[in-house]
Structures are given as structure tokens and as C-alpha cells.
Amino acid sequence: MVTSGSDNSLKKRGCALSKQDFLPEESFQSWGNYGKALCSTKTRLKDRLLARSDDNLELHEMRARSEHQMKKTLNWWDLIWFGIGAVMGAGIFVLTGEAARNYAGPAVVISYLISGISALLSVLCYTEFAVELPVAGGSFAYLRVELGDFIAYIAAGNILFEYVVAGASVARSWTSYFATLCNHDPNDFRIHMSSFAADYSHLDPIAVAVSVAVCVGACISMKGSSRFNSIATIIHLLILLFILIAGLTKANPANYEVFAPNGVRGILKASAVLFFAYVGFDGVATLGEEVKNPGRDIPIGLIGSMLITITVYCILSGTLCLMQPYSEIDVDAPFSKAFQAAGMNWAKYIVALGALKGMTVVLLANIIGQARYFTHIGRTHMAPPILAAINEKTGTPVNATVIMTVANAIVAFFTNLDVLSNLLSISTLFIFSLVALALLVRRYYVTGETSNSDQYKLIGFLAVIIGSSIASAAYWAAGDGGWVGYAVTVPIWFLATLGLQISVKQARKPKMWGVPLLPWLPSACIAANVFIMGSIDQPSFVRFIFWTLLLLVYYLFVALHASYDAARETERTANASRASNIEAGIAQ
After folding, report:
1. What are the phi and psi torsion angles at 182 (to 5°)?
2. pLDDT of residue 182
3. 227 alpha carbon, distance to own chain's centre
4. With CB atoms counted within 10 Å of each terminal CB, which end of the chain scores lower, N or C?
């Protein structure tokens, strides 16, 4: 039996660790037990593959495994600033140059709007889930409830990998912008090890120091982290306002004479690039347990922050194209070079300071989101349960925060930015698509209530929606074949969504806040995310598959058996509780 002591040990052991903190389940108590578990892999996989959690389990029993509760200290104001801070980092200073010069020209404004609307569709789906399931696991918990343990595990493993890469990348970039402020080359602040491979030879102690400092703040106090984030984000916005005003003083409307040099295709290709300037909001959804009034605060915080971000991005990108002809915009440092070309060389320091502030709050939001993902995964025993511990004094997941910071710092210390930037994977888009799919399942399917006929129709329509979305993305990736392919795939997507709306009865209504225009917005979210995947290079898909295979190996040899034992223990506890209640009723 899985002993409840596996969770209690989190508070009893203090700093002393043992195997029980990492593998307390029955399957790992001896080599004999583990051998029996491996022999039962097929049976256990069949049991857990499509096993779905439920709202009550995620909201109550999973939380209880952390022993202590996170402190409810956040409101909508905090969430708005966390949302802006998590999303509005250095992306606007880096991605805008590539998108404007190579693809869209001044129409980059439209590209930012299109990619912003695509991101907003995902925000709406996340918001409904976060209101209904305000738990630390974010998308992991949402997918566990609607699509099952296995899908949730694969998705969470991929998003954590992307979090580590993003955190390390931002930490290395922090050093680069700090060097700019100091009039130095970034490698002047790094330790060169000639005996190491070229891509790993410039060791970055500043990146590690910044990561550790952010980790300490995230561990000490969530409310304190929120205050710091709010102040830093407000300063960041003031710097962006300065860039806007200063840039408009050098505006030349003639630069807009050729508005979209590469036509619609150029605008859409730029949108695919710029979409990644909007990612990060999913980490805000992991703060659900710490929000005072989820039904009110989460929708205002998530949607409000995204609307502000879209507006700022569109205005700043438009200003950049007014300052310089799109063909002269620098790909790597567009704003700094634009000010330099306009005779305002001093402004590059303001730009660097703005980027530095932005990256600091992105690092904070990144580690907070990472830790809360890992905390909830630890609660399910798919990761070591010691990660589920919540510190009694601070009300924060200290163990998970420290472990994820160590991972970020190690990668940031050794790995060059060029390597990290090429590790961009499809994980974010993959999970955004799954969350939208899970929302449709949640609204149209309830076990024991949805008829077999509606169930089969739901599966069929969802398969067509996904299939037509993949077909559109594949046609886009194949090259400029005109619009003939879309004349087939888009109507198929439209008819499948319409069929879902007309012929399948909704099985559940949201209790507090729901996505409007169902099923159109979640269906459009799936189509948009899959379409953007078509613009990602082949090596990213190879990395995604390779990492997923590694996750699968860990799942088959460890996570499957740990989560199976934990689920059986939860089931036994629930049965015993029901039996006790029945006996108490009879006695009365």
C-alpha cells in the first residue's frame, strides 16, 4: 500500500532526504515489487492511459497532498501585472526587426494584431479552466480532468522543457543587455573556457546570479514577488512610453508608402514569428490557488493583460516602421539601431534598460509558473512527491522553485544564446491546442450523461476539426501553392464546427465564467495554433519527438507505476471514507 507517510514525510524530515521522499510508492519499496510492477505495465498502462481526474479531486485531494496551503494573496490587479510581466519581455525588442524587415514591412502592425488575436483565443480557453479549476497545475490539471493522465503528462513534460530553455535564454540575454548598458561586449562578462566546445565555452555567472536572486524572491513571498513585479512592470511600461514618444518625434510617414511588400503571405509569416512574443500567459493560470476571488480576478487579470499587451505591441511596431524604412530595420536590435540612425545614440541605453527590466520580470514569472506546474505534477506522483511540498511559513512551493532554478541556472551557465534560440519547440502551440480541445470535451461530454450518439458525433467532429487544421498547416508549409488548398480545408473546418454546434448537445455549462461563441472560438484556437506550427522548422519537430520519447521512457519505467499506486491509494481512501460514513449513518 502507498503509505500516507509519503506525504507526511515532507514536513517531518526537514532537510534530511531519503528514497521515501522521491519514490514512496509500493512499486518501489523493493526490487521484487518493482519487477512485479514492470510485469504489469500493460495492465497499468491500459488503466491509466485514458483515466480522467475530476474537479473535486484536483481542487481538494490533490491540494491536500502538499500538507500546507498556498496563501491567497492575489487579486485582479496583481494578475494584470503578472500577465504583462510574463509576456512583455524582450520579444518586442528582438522579434519585431525580423518580422518587419524580412516578411511584413510596415504591415507588421497587422501581423502583431493577428498573432495577438490568436493568443487571445488561447487566453479565453485558459481563463474558463482557471476559473473552474483554480489550481497550481494550470494546463496539466485541465488536461488531466478532460483528456486523461497520459496526455497531461506528455504535455506537462514538454512545457517544463520549454520553460527551462526560455528561462536559461532570458538569463543569458540579461547578461547581454547589462553589457550594453556598461558599454561592453557581452562575453567580457563571461568566463571563456577554451577547452570546452565552442557553443558551451563562455560560462555566464551573471545569468546564474540573476536566476538565484529571482528564485530567492519567489521563495520568500508571493505577495512580495507580486509587488516587485508590479513596480518593475510599471517602470518597463514607462520606458516603452518614452521609446514611443521619442520615436514619434523622428517619424516619417513616407516609410508607410510600401505598406505590405510581401503581401498577405508576408503578413501571415510575420504573424507566425510574432506569436512567440505573446507566450507566457499560461504561467499566470498556475496562480489560481493564490487568487482571492478566481471568478472575478482571473478573467480580468488574464484577458486584461493580453489586451494591454496587444495594444502596446501594435503601437510600438508601428512607431518603429515610422522611424526607418522597413528595409533598413536592424534584425537583431531594431529599436536601438533606429534611434542610432536618427542621431539619438543615447536612447539605446534606455532601450537596454527597458529590455533588462522586462527580462527580469519574465524570469520571475517563468520560475513561478515552472514551480507551480511541478508542484501539481508532484501531487499526482508523476514526479517525485517531495516537489509537492508547500512551505508552511511562506506558503510557496520552495522545493519545486529551487529545483527548477538549479535546472535553469545550469543550462544558462554553459549554453550559448545561439543554441538556446534554436531550441524553440512546438510545445507551447501543442499545449494551447490541447487546452482548446479539452475545453470542447468539457462542454460537450460528461461521463454517464452524454449519450453514445452525441459521444460518437463529438469524436467525429473533433477529428475533422483537427484534421482540416493540420491540412491547412501542411499546405502552408509546402510553399506558395495559392489559395486552392484553403478553399477545401477551411470550409471543411467550418462545416465541422457548425455541425458540432448544431447536432451535439452541450453537456455542461460554466459555473462562473465561460468562453463565448462556443464552439467557434475554441475551434478557431485549435486551427490558429496548428496553422502556426506549419511555420516552425523541421528540427523543432525532431526535438519535440525526441524529448517526447524520453518522457515516454520515464513514464513507462517510473511515472506510470508511481501514479498508478497513488491513484489506487486515493481510491482505497475514498472507499474507506464512504464505508465509514455509511456505518455512521446506520449507527445513528
Report:
1. -95, 10
2. 83
3. 22
4. C
